[in-house]
Design a protein that fits this description.
156 residues, alpha/beta, Rossmann fold, 4 helices, globular
Amino acid sequence: MQWVKKDLEQYIQAKEYVDTIIVPLIPFHLSHDTELAKSGFQGEALSIFINEIEKDLAGRVMLTPNYTYLKKSDKQQEVTRLNEWVEDMSSQPFNHTFFITFDSTWKKHEALLNGTLLWLPGIQSGDLYSKEMHSVIQDQVTQISELIRSYWETME
């Protein structure tokens, strides 16, 4: 389920089945021209990736809006903000919270997050709509979906 009216209305009717929330973490910056294209590409790739995971795990996951932050921001402050998101989400019956990102700097702070960080090695560039890139994304979607399912199995 995505953060759109139709899906949220459906969620309200079926919330006992939706036990997993996914939060995409997307860095933003305009300060380094040399990294703008790469940053935009990774944001777009993560959006495609997240949408494919949502399709693969449909009926059991909810995607939040993207959590966008300044790339150079203090990660301690961002951890606090993300944990506030998780606290707010805890009013719903979510048993699993996953943060998904290409930004490796989160790895240093993952123990402080009230959820599971899934860091993906970044796809640096390419044609997001080519067969080759679709294959790479689909392989990662399959692996991450299996990982998320393994968390479900431990709770059942």
